[in-house]
Amino acid sequence: MSIQLFTKTVKQNESLSYDDMIQAAELVFNEETPQEDIAAFLVALSEKGETTEEIAALATVMKANATSVPVPNGAYIDNCGTGGDGLKSFNISTTAAFVLAANNVSVAKHGNRKISSASGSADVLQALGIHTNFTINDSVDLLKQEGITFLYALNVHPKLKRIGEVRRAIGKPTIFNMVGPLTNPVNLTTQLVGINRPEFVSEYAEVLRILGRERAVVVSGTQGMDEASLDGENKLALLENGEIKAFTLNAEDYGLSAVSVSALIGGTPEENAVILRDLLKGKQSPYFDAVLLNAAIGFFAYGSAASINEGIDMARDSIMSGRALSKLDAVVEYSQSILKERIR
Q: Which of 123, 163, 271, 299 could form a disulfide with 119 if both were Cys (CB 3.0 to 4.6 A apart)?
């Protein structure tokens, strides 16, 4: 079957069933499918609006095509967001990952270079001295040693390179933004996902339920920010015991100052690396508060914190004690040692 037939269906504003989307996704990853046909399909899906079944099916196929990452049995979390909000905020979830890992949360962070942002997680990690050329064994060893690892999407999804070319040609968010956080090759028990579609928060939690997460939190902030924002109402959904509960959250209710999304804008990867390191040294700013809030939700999603309030206390202690900065330094040191071994 040709992907053009699926595109035609979608253009008629008809959603694909889970099984049909499995077939379409396999064609997307087929090297023989012309890139322009893939682009047309992705654009058509975006214009129609992706459904839970379409997203879950694409995630299933993409993960099936991923490289195996043989981590020890354990409870792992990812806090990767969808991106695509166009707000160019600094790397909040990457910073929060160090805060979480410094407090005994096992983090398998899935990330990519910038596609629709100024600095993707892989870009800022590179600027910090954490390279993206880990082998699978390197990534697993880092996770064992430090309780955190970074899985660069192109390293674990070899078929993504071609898709990346298509996405860059399209130049705006597609279903792959929605699917990215769902395709971590590590089997996650829990997850925190920021998405750029506030109206889709509960539906995204349903995708996570379909994919077998035991517990998860989905959040969308002001202006569709794919993180919890400090200004206005955040929309969230908690997946727990197979049930989904929607709720809202306002940063001011947790003693944090309300500032606009514009106060969280970052810059180049190098500029964001400076923000990140200063923040982990305890420098107070809206960046600091944003990381506190998002790390707090991460602790709550993982089950380490019984409430967001408790999570904020844990996040603040992780930073102000110096543990989060030490965790960053340990990962940088590990990364640099790998490079030195390869030079020998």
A: 123
Hey, what are 212's tokens?
Answer: 């077998």
- Residue 340: which pLDDT band, with cuts at 50, 70 and 90? confident
Please say whether the structural domain 76-328 has been given the CATH code 3.40.1030.10.
yes
309 CB neighbour count, 10 Å cutoff: 14
Look at residue 78 and give its three-state secondary structure: strand
> Which three-class secondary structure state does DSSP give residue 237?
strand
Surface-to-core class of residue 259, CB atoms within 10 Å of its CB (0-12 exposed, 13-18 middle, 19+ buried): middle
Q: Is the pTM of this model over 0.85?
A: yes
Q: Across all residues in the chain, what is the average pLDDT?
A: 93
Of the candidates 216, 183, 203, the one whose C-alpha atom is nearest the C-alpha of residue 29 is: 183
Instruction: Indicate the annotated binding residues for Mg(2+).
Output: 93, 226-227
Taking the C-alpha atoms of residue 140 and residue 153, their distance in angstroms, rounded to an integer, is 15
The C-alpha atoms of residue 152 and residue 144 are separated, in whole angstroms, by 17
Annotated binding residues: 81, 84-85, 89, 91-94, 109-117, 121, 167, 226-227
Give strand ranges (E) for the chain: 76-78, 106-111, 148-152, 190-194, 215-220, 233-240, 243-250
What is the Cα–Cα distance from 37 to 257, expressed in whole angstroms?
47
Annotated binding site for anthranilate: 81, 112, 167
pLDDT at 154 over 90: no
